[in-house]
Write a structure and sequence with these properties.
The complex is a heterodimer of chains A (726) and B (148).
Chain A: H1 5-52, H2 55-71, H3 77-99, H4 106-126, E1 133-136, E2 140-143, H5 145-235, E3 239-243, E4 249-253, H6 256-261, H7 271-275, H8 281-294, H9 301-306, E5 313-318, E6 324-338, E7 341-351, H10 353-380, H11 384-406, H12 412-435, H13 439-457, H14 467-498, H15 510-513, H16 521-526, H17 540-555, E8 559-564, H18 571-592, H19 596-601, E9 608-616, E10 620-627, H20 634-643, H21 649-654, H22 657-662, H23 684-694, E11 698-704, E12 708-716, H24 717-725
Parallel strand pairs in A: 8-9
Antiparallel strand pairs in A: 1-2, 3-4, 3-7, 5-6, 6-7, 9-10, 10-12, 11-12
Helix pairs in contact in A: 1-3, 1-5, 2-3, 2-5, 3-4, 4-5, 10-14, 11-12, 11-14, 12-13, 12-18, 13-14, 17-18, 18-23
Chain B: H1 4-22, E1 27-28, E2 32-35, E3 43-51, E4 55-61, H2 63-72, H3 80-102, E5 106-108, E6 112-115, E7 128-136, E8 139-147
Antiparallel strand pairs in B: 1-7, 2-7, 3-4, 3-5, 3-6, 4-8, 7-8
Classes of the chains: A alpha+beta (726), B alpha+beta (148).
Chain lengths: 726, 148
């Protein structure tokens, strides 16, 4: 928890007051100790000084007693001994008093000085140790020679003591009084000091109590805050945790993380370990790099947010039933700044699975709605019969696809055998859907083509590989059904608008058209479709014009489409002619006609020309398709074939122009490296050629690089009449 | 629309059974679509599904295949009841796999077993079924997924 400025100030003040009061208490105790010591010395000195006051009188009296005894020739030993003791004690105590150093008084100095004057007088007395008397039988006791001198000294000392005892006593009394004053002063100081000490102790106790009170208040607030934080972390639906500089998770996290990740050992766990088993290695590496970048001081946070690779992370989790489920998590990162820079990175994790799924469903609904609108708009421009004809053909084609799938297969060869047939059928449906601008159908068929293309690349095929295809096929069939329903509604709408009398032809009812009979087996085997409803030659013109317009727009080309004789196409040939023209028109738009700026540079007209002519010939019918585009350069065909590993470089070098031109009819050959809706699969001209050959026709190509490409398809007359009769 | 993973779950449930019970994996043939009521073999284990998807998933196998399967499982009893139990067991494995992968989104019934020439397979009219041939040794059974 971060300390606020007020809290920090409060703590500093408390600490300051505590320190000052402790120092004051220390000083009081120290000074008090000093004063007490001094008082003790003063009292001892006072006691000594008080006891010393009697000594001068004692000495005088003892000298008088000694003198009297000497005069009476009485025993003086005891008196002398008492005097010696008194003098020694007085001398010792007086010197001790001085030696303590605590007494600095003029009276003591004077007393010492006076006592010092006692010395020469009293010293001979107290140092006497001879016999003062001489005993004789005649005269009794008399002074000995030393006794006489001793007596004289005693008398002199007695006289000196009598004269000075009072003075000395007064000096000692003054000294005692002075010492008493000192002791009283010290006692007063000590009292005052103790009062200060008590006061300081009270202040200290109050400060401690206040500090304790505020501390407990803050602790309670902190506890409450922690509890609230715990409650928040327990309740919040997002996962929160902090990452340290070692990219490890801190000790506090929200409980939602446990639900999200199915574990609770987050403390100290590295971010990499957290995601290791949940995401692919590449995602993990990107995420780890991103986290490292977050710690860079110079990286701008908003910029970092915009490149967050974990904005929508797909993870695979246990579903609680022993299986796995996919969940989507959203990671968000915020730097937590401290005084020294980035302190932590706060990571919030949200489980956005339901939002992602909802968004996906919404997107799908939106796409479907858009597709339906597009489809509706496209359908409004298509003749209803033409549309129904297409839907019938497409359904028949898809049923054929399903029939191909249904063929039992166990080996790779048996599975692989299906692919070419599947591709031809799908490509044909896509071409026609594209020509009718039914983009949602074309896109779905294109997705199926993608699956077939991927399967072709696989080394070993099994039934598992076909599961996605069968799912897409189901989806496409369902889509065709909804398009058919829409077509029915649209036709009904048109009819009601135009009136039944003006309608030249009417689309069959959706229910009747929903289940067309299966295609004849012969047609399935030949690789061409035989729709239930014969195509009409009139359908070709608007279809091709619509396709030309769409192709020009999609590929940034400009060209004019000239059509001639298509009304004469016999009904049995209409489907094949249509498929061939659609494919050749796509090739012309993608590969043939140059972009306007290229044409200008080549001094050609900006707008290219694609002309189609269908006419009778001696053997039957000729379909001539020509564009004034870039033509076909045999060398580019060879290079593309080598690039696609269809031929070796040596084989390509050995090819003559005719053989090189034949490459365009080879399955899988395309000069375009990238696959688009209109080119790149390498199946277009292969399909055209197969369709023509299936009708007993032939196809020829002539070209001049930079000038034109011309395809001539010759169809037999017999096939048309026999099929027509049949 | 059925998702690829959902279809795979049912397929894996079926092939896993052969791998575990007979120690010989089954492979799947070329899957396809079928409109109308699917044809079944002599023994059929059915699970009904409701919730996110509605419909039935069933495994149907010929008697010959089940006989070989029982032999491979070291069983000596080839009675009608044992055959029924066996397809029930396959359906149970499919059901367990589905429960594991789909969790609460799918409500899956206890498997039921149908046998005989033309048993009454519950089928919603107009619903296309996914037919996945299950190839094991020289025999072929079918897994039929018929869900909305």
């Amino acid at each position: 928890m971060m300390l606020s400025g007020t809290e920090r100030r409060r703590q500093l003040i408390t600490a300051g007051v505590g320190t000052v009061l402790t120092l004051v208490m220390g000083a009081v105790l120290f000074v008090g100790f000093r004063i007490a010591t001094q008082m003790r010395a003063s009292i001892t000195a006072l006691q000594t000084a008080s006891s010393l006051q009697n000594y001068p009188d004692d000495i005088t009296q003892q000298l008088t007693s000694l003198r009297d005894r000497l005069e009476a020739r009485a025993y003086s030993g005891q008196a002398l001994e008492d005097l010696q003791g008194t003098v020694r004690r007085f001398d010792r105590q007086l010197k001790e008093l001085n030696a303590t150093g605590n007494v600095r008084s003029a009276e003591l100095t004077r007393a010492l000085q006076l006592w010092h004057e006692y010395g020469p007088v009293i010293e001979p007395v107290v140092s006497f140790n001879a016999q003062p008397y001489v005993d004789s039988d005649t005269s009794g006791s008399s002074f000995s020679r030393e006794g006489r001198a001793h007596y004289a000294e005693v008398k002199r000392a007695q006289l000196f003591a009598t004269d000075n005892a009072k003075v000395l006593q007064a000096q000692l009394l003054t000294l005692a009084t002075s010492l008493q004053h000192d002791a009283s002063d010290a006692a007063a100081r000590l009292r005052a000091l103790l009062s200060i000490g008590v006061l300081a102790a009270l202040v200290l106790a109050a400060a401690a109590a206040w500090f304790q009170f505020t501390r407990s208040r803050h602790e309670r607030a902190a506890r409450e805050a922690q509890e609230q934080t715990r409650d928040i972390l327990k309740t919040v639906r997002e996962g929160f945790f902090l990452l340290d500089a070692d990219y490890r998770i801190g000790s506090v996290w929200s409980e939602a993380l446990t639900r999200m990740f199915g574990r609770d050992d987050f403390a100290g766990l590295s971010f990499e370990e957290l995601l290791k088993d949940l995401v692919p290695a590449a995602t993990l590496a990107t995420a780890t790099k991103y986290i490292k970048l977050l710690w860079g001081e110079r990286a701008h946070e908003n910029l970092m947010k915009s490149i967050n690779p974990l904005g929508q992370l797909e993870i695979s989790m246990d579903n609680g039933h022993g299986g796995k489920e996919t969940r989507y998590l959203q990671f968000d990162f915020h730097r937590v700044m401290g005084p020294a820079g980035i302190k932590h990175v706060l990571c919030s994790v949200g489980d956005i699975t339901s939002s992602v799924l909802l968004a996906r469903e919404l997107q799908e609904s939106q796409d479907n709605a858009n597709a339906q609108v597009d489809m509706m708009l496209a359908m409004m421009h298509i003749d209803p019969l033409q549309l129904v004809s297409f839907l019938d053909g497409a359904e028949t084609g898809l049923k054929l696809v399903n029939t191909i799938l249904k063929e039992p297969a166990r080996t790779d060869a048996e599975f692989r055998k299906k692919l070419s047939g599947l591709f031809r059928e799908l490509h044909s449906i896509k071409g026609e859907a594209s020509a009718l601008s039914l983009s949602s159908i074309a896109a779905r068929v294109h997705a199926l083509e993608d699956i077939v293309t991927e399967l072709k690349k696989k080394a070993e095929l099994s039934g598992n590989d076909f599961l996605p295809m069968v799912l897409k096929l189901d989806e496409l069939l369902a889509h065709l059904r909804s398009v058919r329903e829409m077509a029915g509604r649209l036709t009904a709408l048109k009819e009601s608008a135009a009136g039944a009398a003006t309608t030249a032809f009417t689309a069959p009812a959706p229910s009747a058209a929903a289940a067309p009979p299966p295609a004849p087996a012969a047609a399935q085997q030949s690789g061409t479709r035989a729709p239930q409803y014969a195509r009409r030659a009139e359908d070709l013109t608007p279809t091709l014009h619509a396709l030309a317009e769409r192709l020009a727009q999609d590929h940034g080309k400009r060209f004019r489409l000239k059509l001639a004789g298509l009304g004469d196409v016999p009904a049995p040939y209409v489907a094949t002619v249509k498929d061939c023209l659609i494919q050749m028109l796509r090739n012309a738009a993608v590969h043939g006609i140059e972009a306007p700026e290229v044409r200008r540079a080549l001094t050609k007209q900006d707008v290219g020309v694609v002309s189609v002519a269908f006419q009778r010939s001696a053997e039957g019918f000729d379909l001539v398709f020509e564009d004034d585009g870039a033509g076909i350069a045999p060398d580019s065909l060879k290079a593309a074939a080598v690039r696609q590993q269809l031929v070796t470089e040596e084989e390509a070098a050995a090819m003559d122009t005719r053989t090189a031109m034949a490459l365009i009819f080879r399955p899988g050959f395309s000069t375009q490296d990238e696959v688009s809706m209109d080119a790149g699969r390498g199946v277009g001209m292969d399909v055209v050629a197969r369709s023509v050959y299936a009708l007993g026709g032939k196809i020829g190509v002539s070209t001049h690089p930079g000038k034109y490409t011309r395809f001539k398809i010759s169809l037999p007359a017999g096939q048309a009449s026999s099929t027509a009769v049949a | 629309m059925l998702h690829e993973q959902e279809l795979k779950t049912f397929v894996e449930g079926t092939t896993n059974f052969f791998e575990v019970a007979a120690q010989q994996p089954a492979s799947i043939g070329s899957p396809y679509l079928l409109e109308g009521t699917p044809q079944v073999h002599e023994y059929t284990g059915v699970i009904n599904i409701s919730g996110k998807r509605e419909g039935v998933v069933f495994f149907t196998a010929p008697k010959a295949m089940l006989t070989v399967l029982l032999m491979k499982m070291q069983e000596n009893d080839f009675s009608h009841e044992t055959m029924r139990d066996l397809v029930g067991e396959v359906a149970n494995t499919i059901s367990g796999n589905a429960r594991r992968d789909f969790g609460r989104e799918f409500v899956i019934s206890v498997p039921s077993v149908l046998s005989g020439e033309k048993p009454e397979i519950p089928h919603k009219p107009g619903l296309r079924s996914f037919i996945i041939p299950i190839n094991w040794r020289s025999h072929s059974a079918k897994l039929v997924v018929s869900l909305t």
